[in-house]
From TrEMBL:
It comes from the Bacteria. GO terms for molecular function: carboxypeptidase activity. This is D-alanyl-D-alanine carboxypeptidase family protein. SUPFAM superfamilies: Hedgehog/DD-peptidase. InterPro entries: DD-CPase-like, VanY-like_core_dom, VanY/YodJ_core_dom, Zn_M74/Hedgehog-like. Residues 31-46 have a biased composition (Polar residues). Residues 86-225 form the D-alanyl-D-alanine carboxypeptidase-like core domain. Residues 31-54 are annotated as: Disordered. GO terms for biological process: proteolysis. Keywords: Carboxypeptidase, Hydrolase, Protease. Coiled coil: none annotated. Pfam families: VanY (PF02557).
């Protein structure tokens, strides 16, 4: 009799231990399932936020056209308007005017240096730069000593784009500064900071040469539209990087 009671007790204890073990294991499993479910919902809500944030734009939008050495384009012939003696695509004339006026609040000497340049004009400009470099009267080779055409072209490509590769042919790019020399304006950072308010971005920022193919240019601004300019600035994206996020 005593033995039977002891045996039943042992069985009971074993059953309890087994049951507890089972509860613990199931609990643990359901916890970890909850955790991973939580993680999934966090990352998917991030995805949604990212997409919600992205402007409703397409790669083919007129104000996002890409012209570069990697994406050369033939003569585009935009309809032009003149702002302070500089030609731009007429669709952005009032934005250029407003951006210029706002920049002049920062430095009264701010002025437009260049706007629209046709492919044929760029051709002539580029050839004259190559000639000047070859003759030693160039921007890089100002030594007075002649160099080969090949060397001259390398020099020119550090500050000018070959014809069909300059976005000045779009009429959507302007060069604007308080002085007529590149990367020497003490107001450049302040002017670049207000650009997105008018739909412009500093097109060739520091540290983005791998993306744009062009080193820092403190005076070259590109119109991309208000929403795009804000998004690109907030996310530190060049036009090349931004276009990759958009549908065709
Ligand atoms: Zn420019």
């Amino acid at each position: 009799m005593k033995r039977r009671i002891t045996f039943s007790l042992i069985v009971l204890v074993l059953l309890i231990i087994g049951a507890l073990g089972f509860i613990l294991i199931t609990n643990d499993k359901s916890n970890s399932t909850n955790e991973s479910a939580k993680k999934t919902s966090i990352s998917s809500s991030k995805e949604v936020a990212k997409k919600k944030d992205l402007p409703d734009a397409k790669q083919s939008d007129w104000d996002l056209v890409l012209v570069s050495r990697k994406s050369p384009k033939d003569e585009m012939n935009p309809t032009l308007a003149t702002v302070n003696g500089i030609q731009v695509d007429q669709r952005i004339a009032s934005e250029v005017q407003q951006f210029l006026a706002a920049a002049q609040q920062i430095s009264p000497a701010e002025h437009l240096i260049s706007g629209y340049r046709s492919v044929s004009y760029q051709e002539g400009l580029y050839q004259s730069y190559v000639q000047a470099e070859m003759n030693g009267q160039g921007t890089v080779n100002s030594s007075g000593n002649p160099i080969s055409e090949e060397e001259a072209i390398k020099n020119v490509q550090t500050y000018s784009q070959p014809p069909r590769s300059s976005e000045h042919q779009t009429g959507l790019a302007i060069d604007m500064s308080n002085i007529d020399s590149l990367n020497e304006s003490q107001y450049a950072k302040q002017v670049a900071a207000i650009a997105p308010k008018y739909g412009f971005v500093l097109r060739f920022p520091e540290g983005k040469k791998a993306e744009t193919g062009i080193g820092y240019e403190d005076w070259h601004f590109r119109y991309v539209g208000l929403e795009n300019a804000k998004y690109m600035t907030e996310h530190n994206l060049t036009l090349e990087e931004y276009l990759k996020l958009l549908p065709a």
